[in-house]
Amino acid sequence: MFLKNDIVSLRVAEPNDADMIYRWENDMEIWRDSETRVPFSLRQIECFLLNNNDLVSEKQLRLIIEDTTNGDAVGCIDIYDYDEFNSRAGIGILIDKNHRGKGYAKNAIAMLIDYCFNTLILNQIYSLVLATNLTSILLFENLGFERCGVKKQWYKTPKGFVDQIEYQYINRK
Q1: What is the spatial distance between Cα 95 and Cα 116, in angstroms, rounded to a whole number?
Q2: What is the pLDDT of residues 21-38, one digit of tens each?
């Protein structure tokens, strides 16, 4: 167990999580929001978990979100583009479609904010959200992230182009 509260716990993704991550990463329903265009192989995911899930050397860390009460994996949260020199990193989150709307994302992000600011001593974290992802927009805004930019017509969809909104959370302590 890495981080824990009454709702969720976060732990580093392990090689035995590969099948579950494979299912999540290859769910075409979420590809639009994750800006994915091609599937991942199970081998690619296994290699990432064995060799590349390292914040310092690879600038990315994937954590599994578990329900604290029963230990079920309900999603994952990433720190990416970790920039120690400029004291910032991006974060992204995925909650399994069967576990959405239960407060897992809010709790996981809140714990990650605390970790990023008080352990990694970052100055800021950011997230990129498609303008059509109203659930994520509300989530990040309710957690105190501020809209700091919009990339117009950034992402191509079958229905046309969609803006991408950039959110920042600056450590004010």
Answers
A1: 20
A2: 888 877 666 655 556 666
